[in-house]
Amino acid sequence: MKEIKNWYIHIDFDSFFATVEQQANPRLRGKPIGVTGGDRLTRTVIGAASIEAKARGVKTAMRIPEALKICPDLILVRGDSYKYMEINKRFLNILKSYTDKMEVFSIDEVFLEIESSRLSLEFSAIDPDSRLLTLATDIKERVQQEGGEWLSVSIGISYNKMLAKLAGSMYKPNGLVGIMDQDSAIQILDQIELDDVCGIGLRIKARLNNMGIYTFKDLREVPLQNLLASFKSYGQVLYNFARGIDERPVVPYFEKEEVKSVGHRHTISKDVSTAAEIKQYLLKLSEMVARRLRAKNLEGKTISLWYRAAFNQAYFQETGSKFYGEGMQSTVLYTNDGMEIFNAGWKSFRKIWTDEPIRMIGISVSNLKPATPATLSLLDDVKRREVITRALDNINNRYGEFTLQRGVLLTSAKLKRMPNSFMSDRRFRI
Ligand SMILES: [Mg+2]
């Protein structure tokens, strides 16, 4: 057995949303609670169940009347994404201190990759098993110290990601399981279902079943080329899984500055001076902004509207600047709806527009928060993870897009606030 160079650690909160609510409100502790979403749709189902509720048979995505039939004393709690984001932030800060190879898998799940050699430096115990144990215990303690005593995580340790996650799922809550070598890995794989491994969903399982493959033992007997023929490149992954091999690296999550606003602006090819025409542009921009917010699963409450007037000779002579521009911010209830964004923007526009022709108009939404996380829990586990990961990816990959908007809108040097009579509306110059 070759020496293990890197250890993979999977850390997963136990019943995250529900435990965070119990941490915040001690009266909910030890009781069956169901977290529901904030909007009309998700308020009718259980978004997340506490450990106590799960023990009574309450499941995620169960309709509330059904859940109450099974568990009449179930306490329903409205989900609160601020709390979850705050705990998530502290959680990531703790884990960052162990390694910079950290992959954020979902709001409550993280992979760490730690070199064996570093491990021996930081934890002086003699054998690797007890050094890993020290590390895991350390993480568990710090989560409770910095997040709260009611919170707990389950930890899985192994020599690759797939097995670390599997190990973490084997004992919950507050679990700590290590799969320390390939022999133990194969022993465990041969006792579990195909879809117990993350990466084999129900559809792949069904296709494997159709090929007469029901266990990892069966899977090991299939030649690689057959798997490649049926599953293309994923055939290699399945071939490896059956042998306890997973070469996927930890994909570090580089913390970028949080996305502060999502916006669009449009420079119109001609000067526009009729309200009806401007309205069309603004409506289109608002819909684009709303779509992007929804794609990122965000909603915001500050709507900024700004425009630049067409070139005006008199203004130029007077001020030396070519274009006159103005903007206004207003506050609405959290939204990612195109019509609501448009309505707020249009109202601002009517307040500041003095009928001059315009050349550019822009609208953005800031003061963002994640849209009801309970909605995410309604999707099945894998899909939910995909959604969250994709959201993070989008934020990271597309950050560049926002810099221009932010430059125009948020650089304080360029932004002169002017007091006005509207309570929440603020005018600014661009
Ligand atoms: Mg969890």
Low-confidence runs: 121-126, 374-382, 388-424
How much β-strand is present in the residues? 15-25%
How large is the count of helical segments?
A: 18
Radius of gyration: 26 Å
CATH class of the largest domain: Alpha Beta
Whole-number tally of structural domains: 3
Strand order of the largest sheet: 9-12-10-11-14-13
How many strands in all?
A: 14
Structural class, from secondary structure content? alpha+beta
CATH topology-level name of the largest domain: Alpha-Beta Plaits
Largest sheet composition:
6 strands, antiparallel
Q: Report helical residue fraction.
A: 40-55%
Shape verdict: elongated
Distance between the termini: 66 Å
CATH superfamily of the largest domain: Reverse transcriptase/Diguanylate cyclase domain
Ligands (ions, cofactors included): magnesium ion
On the 0 to 100 scale, the average pLDDT is 80
CATH architecture name of the largest domain: 2-Layer Sandwich
